[in-house]
Fold each of these.
Amino acid sequence: MNPHPPRLARAILSRVLPPAHRDVVIGDLDEEYRRTIVALVGTRRAAFWYWRQSLLSVPSALRLRRRTSARAASPGEPRATSHVWPELAGDLRYAVRLFARQPGFALLTVVTHALGVAVTTAVATIAYAVLLRPLPYADPDRLFHVYEVDRSRQDQPGAMSWQDFLDLREKSRAFSSVAGFSGGSRTLTASGSAERVPISEVTDGFFETLGVQPILGRTFDRSHITPGGERVVILGHGAWQRRFGGDASIVGRSISLNTEAHTVIGVLPEAFEFPLRGLTELWLPLVPSRQQVERRYWHWLDAIGRLAPGTTTGQAQADLDTVARGLSAEDPRWHGGAIVRFGPLRERIVGNVRPALLVILAAVGLVLVAACASVAGLLIARWSSRTHEMGLRAAIGAGSWRLVRQLLAESLLLSGAGGVVGAAAGYWLLRVFVTTVPRPFLASLPHLDRLTLDPAAVLCALSLSVATGLIVGIAPAVAAARTSPADSLRSSGRTWSGSGQGRARVALVTAQIAFAVVLLTGAALLGRSMWRLLNVSPGFNPGNLLTMRVNLSGDKYNGPEPVRQFHNLLLGRLAAIPGSSGAATIDQLPLTGRGNTGSVIFDGEAGAADEPSRVVAIRSISATYPEVMGIPLIRGRVFAASDRDTSPRVVLVNRTFAERLSRGGDVIGERIVFEFFTGRPRWEIVGVVGDEQFDGLDKELMPVVYFPFAQNSGGAFSIVVRTGNDPAAQTAAVRAAAASIDPGLPLFQLRTMDQIVGQSEAVFMRRQVLSLLSVFGVSALAVSTLGLYGVLAQLVVQRRREIGVRVALGAAGRDVVRLVLRHGLTPAAVGIVVGIAVSLAGARFARSLLFEVSPFDPLSLMAVAVLLLVLTLVACLVPAWRALRVDPVTALRGD
């Protein structure tokens, strides 16, 4: 058998290898083949092996060429006899043993790096899901929210009336389809129990506009939105699974909603979500009432549209302007100067949370950079203490590449471990976010209801870890390669690495302090905003208030009289509960939304009702509402039991109404008129009460008109019970009181008023951002303080000889302390100045989150600066004390 390599391999090697290495490599190839063939002679595998190696000769030749090129690039290195991967594995094993002997350093580095990766992964996943991830619809970039401008709040999106929607759908040419939607709830009766579930009412073409097809059955058509048409329902996927066990034969079956039978005609896919109606379980066809059809001024419907192919946004706005002119011409009183606008559907969904997310993303970026800077500082400090070791290794023959590879292996091992731990911690942070954020808020934003750690975010985090390891490890590695053994041994332990390494560590600490200043300044501004916001009086006493919602429907409550009877009986039962000090009702609770509005005029001011300044909030309340809520009576009287449906019509107004809409005198006794009441009856103002915050604690107060429930009743209202102890403890008693009147009536949305205040958008958004910024700021502050302490401690150790000489020459203790303080206060002062400058430059981006606090608030900036200076002095104490204890004789002898 021929013991030589195939001729093809020899020919290729002769052409591709440099002449200086050709003979050596071919000789190595000959020897390798010879040893293998000899070992296999006499076996059945010898011939097979020979022909197999003949086929693989070309890749073998190329591998040998790479090996030769590497050998030629490092002529001073011993000839390589092994592959790179086994050598790298050996470097990693050595790094593991080294870190096992220094667990504190390894743990601190991994935890610091993991902190940056964890918060980055978690927040990046949330931000991508909300701001960037496409909406789960067909061609989502062509979906828009179409709205009329709110006349009472200029340039704010407002709803449409039913007739306006029909005109838009019929006359607009810019949109290939337009659909409307509204919301509410229904009582679902199944298996003998009744439960109130959230529903959405949509027009025909709604799901087609979104590009969504049901997984079972079909969607609504035009016949379903006709009064008197077939009662049908489409199930959301979650409701189908939870309430009907995922029964595939559900289509065609009947379910009871508000005691009325509805036929199931379809089931939506699991991935479908519509954040504007986030908690919806059942979808019903939108059938407008007679009043909604006739009252064109009644704006209650939201609309979405799909932009027609080939239509630009400019053409679409021109088309809507034409529709608006048509509205003005058809209804000059209520639509004079009508404005119709449109905007991206995503912007309508996430517009309110975008500023908060961007602020959090910026803060996370600072945390990540601070963590990387801290890791870099730790590695540089560790390299400074290993110069003697590197000098010895180089002196006994280790080449530059060997030292570089070892240091990079250690850096990559730490950063890789930090990345893995950080990714796991990021998943945990996401779980915490999902469990702590109220479900309605989660469901109101895209993709958050089923939020999981994004694989792309995990891959990005791991890649970031490796990149960080390379970046922060390359500097000491290059320094090791460029420093001669003699210089390493000579400089070890003698001087402050105040050359490049010392300056690098000081620069890193300065950057960390600047990052901490930016984060703490943001937290301080938001903290002051929260303090001011929570000190805004909502206009009532929220303590010890239990609230719930009830909806009376079905033939049993057909008409106002059965509703009033149930209402009065329930209030009496609730007031008699032990521990209850009163109960009241209101059609919509404060801080839960703007609710119904209407235009009001004083008797004799015909024609002025179409002014935006005449728009007021409208509420129907029980006579006990002001007393139970703790709303003060300013003038006049509150409602009495004698104010019935057969009595003269009376109303209460709030202080803002009396101040803004008064005709110059006392409003008590004035009569007002609302267009939406049939016959335009006159309502006499009998009292003025204090202001309540209905929109939010950070919103401007609105004029409010309160109607007595007895004269303006409705089947849906909220109940408020004031208790003498924990209101949540009264939940069972409240349910029992309602069940004693109607066992099949469900109570829903049971919450305390404190929960409503805390979960309102104004408070919740600022509280979440404040919490995150506080955690990030404290973390950055701890890292920067520890980093500064490490720099100063190393300063004392490495300048021990210099300090000894200074003391021997007569330097006093204050001079030694001044030396340490100068090295500590200088980077701190620079970091504070840079951090404040960055905070001032970026403050305008957080302006929307602030409440009655300037982004340039001097008190917040001063408090952060003083805190950093105090912590800097604390970090200087121990190193300064050690410097004072340096014995000059011992220092000089030890050198």
Note: The chain has four domains: 7-78, 140-350, 498-536+761-895, 553-744.
Amino acid sequence: MSEPKTIGILGGMGPAATADLFAKLIAATDAKTDQDHFRILIDNNPRIPNRNDALAGRGPSPGPRLAEGARTLERAGADFLVIACNTAHAFQAEIEDAVSIPLISMIDATVDAALEKGGERFGVLAADGCRRAQLYDRAFETRGAHSLMLDADTQVEFMELIFKVKAGNTGADVRRRMEQMATSLNARGAQAIVAACTEVPLVLSSDALAIPVVNSTDALVARAVAFARS
């Protein structure tokens, strides 16, 4: 059999979410020896400018840094790219223009995984920048489905939770509040919850809810593994 493709990860957004993606790629591999695993290259760059601030017009664009990281991974031997951040996909075109290798979209992978669960209305827990760029709104709409977002006040609190997770707080209070936010979307008609920020799966699982939780990291892992083996 031919050797599997080398995976390049644009990471650091944030580091814990990147480590989660890496660990799940390893866990998804049916390996009996070291040599059975994928070659994975990671550019864990936490100096990439804040995506939410950039999309709100409050800070510099992360596009140039993301493009630079993509070129670095391609030169190092990556056959394709993934991004350990949903919001960074707002700059996908800039990344793709910088390299000759493909980028596997976390957004597309997650929406397709959600639709496999069935239903037409999906609650989306996403960061401000991801919402502003309408990444999930558009992806669901093109597939004939609808996304439900948190109300404005709850979204402010959601962002506070995300930065607590980034700071290492994954305690019971953070988990409980994230579960309550997901439940509120279910009460408004969501038939599944999309963990559309890579920090959310660190504190939310489907075990806590009466409806499925679609983990964007898991969805990306499944697609990346399949592509690496193709």
Note: The chain is about 45% helix and 15% strand.
Amino acid sequence: MGSTTPTSKLTNGDPTIEPAKKHPAIPLFSRPKSALERDDWTVDLPSTEHVSFFRATDWSASLLGPLESWSLALRLQTFTLFADSRSSCIYWGPDKVAIYNEHFAVLAGGAHPYLMGKTFKQGFPELWGDIKDKFDLAEMTGVSEDVMEIPLFTERNGFVEETYFTGLFIPIRDMDGRVGGHYNSTHEVTKQIIAERRSSMFKRLTIPSHLHEGTLSEYVIPFLESNPRDVTMALLYEVDEETSNDCQVFLRGSIGVPVGHEIAVEKANLNSSKGLIPLLREAKSGILTLPVDQTFDGVEWRGFNEPSKHFSILSLSCVGRLFGFLVVGANPRRAVDDDHQQFMRDLAIKISNVAASIVTTEESRLRAERLEKELTDRERQIRFMATNASVGMQQLSVEGDTIWANEQYYQLTGHPRPEEAQYKFSFLDVFHEEDIDKARDSWSRLIGGEPNVSIELRLKRVFVPLSGDPEPACLLALSFPYIEDGKVHSIMTCTTDVSQLKWAESIEARKAADAREAKRQQEEFIDIVSHEMRNPLSAIFQCADMIQLSLAECETKTSPDELFSALQSNADAAATILMCANHQKRIVDDVLTLSKLEYMMLSVSPRPVQPATLVERALRMFDADIKSHDIQVTIDAEPSLEENNVDWVLCDPSRVAQIFINLLTNAIKFTRTEPDRQINIRYGATPSHPRNMFPDNICWAPSQKKLDDLTDGPEWGDGELLYLSLSVTDTGVGMTSEEIKKLFNRFKQASSRTSIKYGGSGLGLFISQKLTEKQGGEIGVSSTGKGSTFVFYVKARRTVPENPSIASQIYRTTKVRSTSISSRSQANRVDLNKIHVLLVEDNLVNQKVLCKQLRNAGCIVHIANHGVEALEFIRETPLWYQQQPECKQLDIILMDWEMPIMDGLTCSREIRALQEAGKIMRHVEILAITANARQEQIQNALDSGIVRFRMGT
């Protein structure tokens, strides 16, 4: 803005170059404003509907402010954006506010038109965590950051579509030279990604060759399962070729279709009308694609866990020969277009080739058997047939020289070809060292005149199985002498590679052994559980019988001491019943937990907790047991808690407590019979290296899978990652190293004496290991023959006491309570010495037990057998707006969940609706008494108007 005119940079100081002509300066106050400098600078933008939408956006309500306030740099970038033919978007300012062109609007899918003027985080909240670092790095380095093949589910073409995009974020400058925003250019790579996924799928399907034991289903079903998004369900049918006049189809495999489903016909004539059979008949000449209808209800769709919109039926045929049919569910988030049809054609060709190969291989095997039976023919005939055989064939002289061998023999054995050096008995060099003596013995038998010798021999060549470690290849050799004039002239040998067959046999043998062992363990487990359930049940029967007979005995007793003794005996019997019932409950809980683990139904729900509180609450459950056996328990907090300033952590307290309770139960069980009865509990937390918190001699349970970081879920927040650790040391009987190895197996205990002397199902430690793995941790043990130390750690996060989900429940409960209190008059206050309770319960035994407990506590109890009777009772109380002359009092409702006619949740909702409508004049508390205590069930009860929740009958 100064008066001195700078020298033109074009001259570079060279006097030979004429400087640029100077134009007379125009004073700022008289110079006309350019289009970018005018207030309505957007008039020069392209005249399109999208630009009109851009101008109509209420920018004054956005973080960028009104259009006339935008900086010159942002205006320039906006002009560039709307001139760009690529799908592009500008994210401006520290909050990354979006401005995008019409091409980007198509890619934005459901985010358009909301995205215009909103921040990236608002428009794409699910991507913000991944993309934020891209913004930061591009702004820090000044260089663009690439985003490769990011998956998005875009709502377009009338449905939510699976899409993938690649783009880059270019930092762009503001007028002050600093990075003011990012220019994002994106293009779609969906077709390439899906094509690669399908290509990778096809590479997994191997076409069988040589001798095999696999069926078509064993090859095809795992291949289809490898791509759940493009194959959401499948049915594989084979055709019986031998009955061409009465063609039969057989279901050989399925994916996602339950057994017995109406579309999964096990066996049918191709001319029948069962299930999908008519459609198979229609698809006989090619591929048939149809929309999914109600006949597919009940199918367990894979991929996106949503029903497919279409399915295809593929005819599996090759060279005019029909092998079967394949029914395939289509990707519900991709259009059924030319790409889909090509995928179906490729799928049909690939599987048809596998079917043809299996048939061809089987036919080749049969042909080889026929050749082996004809090897007694003349040498010319043998060579002619052997040259064209699919098995290895060799002719040896009686001196051990190779006279002739076909190519297949050299391929199978790895023996040097004829052009390489060969010598007498060189054919023995191909065999494994341990099998050479066996080969020599068979040679001696053949030379001695034995008509034929069949033998399996291992090779030095290595066979690489589909799974497991490489092992020596194996040949099945059938040898016999070629005899003329009663004299052996040569030895003929046919060899077949049976490596895969032997590997499969060993696999099946191991599976059978594992199955027998699993059956044995299961039977042993059932015996143990039956024993552990029946023993306390017998004690319950005896104690209950003793209590029942005590009334008649008390009638004959007169002195207070005798009556007190009878009461003391009844109290002891009741305590025994409670102990036996708790024992049975622990076993049932173990079995239920195991069932949830087996079927992947056990979830981890994080909640804020203090480690000390968690330990103390769990320990409090064992107060009576500890005192009765005079066990000294000490609790020590690790220095790591103070060193790392750990107070509140986010974890699943119930799952952690379940592991701790299992360990503490064992410690008490194995310590209570010892002369020295001590248990030490230590707990701590560290942000890293959890194993370093424990002694070096800990034997860690072998993990069955890689430990996942479950704390990455959104419900875990963003607190610092911690490892919560806990150990239980006892002075019990201890274990040997061999016993420790058995500890964490299902249905296993350290030794047989453990079950006999101490009882138990053998599930506790197995479940504890699975629970620690589920929570990203490990469990281990050490024992030196006297006493044991069990340790474990789980993943957690640092947090504060308040948790939004808990706070919301407290708010709802507090709100209901405050409404209840404010609506009550002084006259309606509850007399705590005489509470009127309505018990809504359909089970007569539960009614009897609860009524007795409540009346013993001084309550006045009324009974309703279901929700309808409960509503009728409320109409007879002062709560009802039309009061009866003689009213029944009501202070609180105890509500069962599962009942006939009207269940507890329905009744609770009806009570709250009547209260809202003014039919019920004041609030009444409802307590749910139920065993349904999963988090979603608790939430369902709260939403129904139940403000308290109690584990019940």
Note: The first helix runs from residue 49 to 56.
